[in-house]
From TrEMBL:
Full protein name: Transmembrane 4 L six family member 18
Annotated Gene Ontology cellular component terms: membrane
Gene (UniProt): TM4SF18
Transmembrane stretches, start-end: 12-31, 46-70, 91-116, 159-182
Membrane topology: Multi-pass membrane protein
Biological source species: Callithrix jacchus
Main location: membrane
Subcellular location: Membrane
Length: 201
């Protein structure tokens, strides 16, 4: 019962993380609160992967809903025995948690790539990825950020929001990994007995 409560608490933590991922990803489309850059497609290409909206957001909400339904289901009628039913539900929980790792991991990777690539901005040479060839070194050298003339403060905007997305999706990966470990321990450590009692057919 304790492990089930722990699993439910972990699943509930995924909800605010998913909602914040959606909000942060949406903000990436509006540097300085302006909509003109999104409408004219003058944003970094990695924001169009919808990593925070779809994968770390909506898909994680679906995964979380499925996990909460499984954890709150006290009736195991998929098999003839209760132990069989519990193992079946635990297996489903592992599958959904693994999907959660995949979805949030996708957001983590794409956000990291967007952070390292740098923003798409207007420089003296026109619209380009001003820091694409720096391999992320621009992140620690704020003196060269002035190369981006437009949108204003877009470098800080991208760094902060992509870093938040990395943090949120990273926490989701950790939570889902913990859930997988908990569920596997239930099976491997014998929480659900598979011994058939005499007289049970």
């Amino acid at each position: 019962m304790g492990s089930r409560k722990c699993g439910s608490c972990l699943s509930c933590l995924l909800i605010p993380l998913a909602l914040w991922s959606i909000i942060v990803n949406i903000l990436l489309y509006f540097p300085n609160g302006q909509t003109s850059y999104a409408s004219s497609n003058k944003l970094t290409n990695y924001v169009w992967y919808f990593e925070g909206i779809c994968f770390s957001g909506v898909m994680m909400l679906i995964v979380t809903t499925a996990l909460l339904v499984l954890e709150n289901n006290s009736k195991y009628k998929c098999c003839q025995s209760e132990n069989c039913g519990k193992k079946y539900v635990t297996l489903l929980s592992i599958i959904f948690s693994s999907l959660g790792i995949a979805f949030s991991g996708y957001c983590l990777v794409i956000s990291a790539l967007g952070l390292v690539q740098g923003p798409y901005c207007r420089t003296l040479d026109g619209w380009e990825y001003a820091f694409e060839g720096t391999a992320g070194r621009f992140l620690t050298d704020s003196s060269i950020w002035i190369q981006c003339l437009e949108p204003a403060h877009v470098v800080e905007w991208n760094i902060i929001l992509f870093s938040i997305l990395i943090t949120l999706s990273g926490l989701q990966v950790i939570i889902c990994l913990i859930r997988v470990v908990i569920q596997l321990s239930r099976i491997l450590c014998g929480s659900y007995s598979v011994i058939i009692q005499p007289g049970i057919i």
